[in-house]
Amino acid sequence: MEKRDFLRLFKNFFSFSLLSWLAQSKAHAAWKKVGKTSGTAGTWQKIVNRNPRIAGMAMGNGYSLAFNSEGNVYGSGDPTDGRMGNNTGSTTYSTFVPALGVSNVVALASSFNHSLALKAGGTVFSTGRNDFGQLGNGTTTNRSTFAQVTGVSNIVAIAASFDASYALDASGNVWSCGNNSSGQLGNNSAAASAATFVQATGISNASAIGAARYFVASLRSDGYVYACGDNFYGNLGDNTTTSRSTFVQSIGVSNAVAIACSNTNMFAITAGGLVFGTGANTGGQLGTNNTAARSTFVQATGISNAIAISSAVLHCLALRSDGLVFGSGFSNMFMRSTFAQVLGVSNVIAISAGAADAFALRADGVLFAAGYNSSGNLATNDTSAYATFVQCTDISY
Fold first, then answer.
1. 49 near 31, Cβ under 8 Å?
2. How many Cα neighbours within 13 Å face the side chain of 36?
3. From CA 312, how far away is CA 301, in angstroms rounded?
4. Is 175 exposed, middle or buried (0-12, 13-18, 19+ CB in 10 A)?
5. How far, in whole angstroms, is CA 24 from its chain's centroid?
6. 106 alpha carbon, distance to own chain's centre
7. How far apart are CA 194 and CA 356, in angstroms?
8. Domain contains 45
9. Residue 30 reports pLDDT greater than 70
10. Distances 369 to 42, 122, 294, 375 between C-alpha atoms, Å
């Protein structure tokens, strides 16, 4: 073979190999050649698909968070105290803007003024207000971008309450940090707070956690529900109104597969798809067709075949196995004491309830929102309230 033939063969092979490598890159990426003229070869430039689908979300109080299929986090609404993680605490946003300091996210938790993000490797990141050490980084200094917490690893689930944070590790242990004024850290300590994560007592083999206001709940792998913290409304479900500083078993529900907490309530779904709740019922949020408070779990009406649940303040949402969303309680979306369908979206795979608002994620990765929106927290590019679900704007890049 002559030298020039060899060089031509090598050039063709190299070009083919490069194109093959580019073609096998991530599905959302493509490449084009730019700057090519008669005298220059040009350069390869990556073209990024500007619409990776939303993979998860969390409603806070006047703000919201979402992450896409690439694990990038975005926020909308009021970023007070840095809780959206976008390095600002003043300007409000009515469309999603990028958060900083974290990537490869697989779960989010948001609350009143701080947020948590769980990365694929089991590490936890936090941002926002930190007056009780709820960011779990050993300080009480606020942050406006996400940074890694200390003291926990191999985490599989996270939850956030008003001013405390919770993490569940792969061994079924529950960890907590932040405010402990009502015993909500669950470590049987009289300490007012903890700025790094401490292990809770009275609970093991946990498979899920939920938190709100001043209490926390955990679902054990055997289907029983445990809780600790403030119990003024009977929200711990132990047939008392006595606060607890270590986890105690709730009464009235077994074979549970999912739990959720709101300010004064706790909810559970059983393996049979039934919804149970305990605690306050001022807005009819327990779905019992009345407004009587309960201190043990009671079954809700109007809902069956439930597979997911989320609650906040005075309302509760449940996702049915057919992809429809049902709700009970008091909010901008509805006012009723039994579960009924919330209109505007179908084929839903995940839900998240905020103070008076909600997200619903459709199976194709399109996000819908409803309810209160004065801070732009619904990411609909306006501040109008919606009684039915409407489509959110796409994540910005």
1. no
2. 7
3. 19
4. buried
5. 32
6. 9
7. 30
8. no
9. no
10. 45, 29, 30, 13
**Count: domains in the chain:** 1
What CATH number corresponds to the domain at position 228? 2.130.10.30
Instruction: Name 59's bridge partners.
Output: 64
Determine, yes or no, domain membership for 97.
yes
Identify the three-state secondary structure at position 22.
helix
Q: How many residues does the chain have?
A: 397
The shares of helix, strand and coil residues in the chain, as percent rounded to the nearest 5, are: 5, 45, 50
SS3 4: helix
Q: Amino acid letter at 5?
A: D
Domain carrying residue 265: 50-391
Q: Quick one: tokens of 186?
A: 């669950």
Residue type at position 397: Y
How far apart CA 202 and CA 246 sit, in angstroms, is 6
Q: How do residues 243-285 score in pLDDT, each as one tens digit? A: 999 999 999 999 999 999 999 999 999 999 999 999 999 999 9
Count of CB atoms within 10 A of residue 192's CB?
Answer: 11
What digits encode the pLDDT tens for the residues 329-360? 999 899 999 999 999 999 999 999 999 999 99
Instruction: Count CA atoms within 13 Å of residue 262 on its CB side.
Output: 32
Encoding tokens for residue 386? 């919606």
Distance of alpha carbon 209 from alpha carbon 157, whole angstroms? 7
Tokens of 53: 């689908």
Tokens of 300: 């809700």
Q: How far apart are CA 49 and CA 39, in angstroms?
A: 30
Is 246 inside any structural domain?
yes
pLDDT at 47: 38
Tokens coding 49: 């698909």
**286-317: b (≥16 Cβ within 10 Å) or e:** bbbeeeebbbbbbebbbbeebbbbbbbbbbbb
For CA atoms 83, 88, 91, 94, the dihedral sign is: negative
The answer as to whether 31 is a domain residue is: no
CA–CA separation, 39 vs 109, rounded Å? 54
Tokens of 368: 């819908």
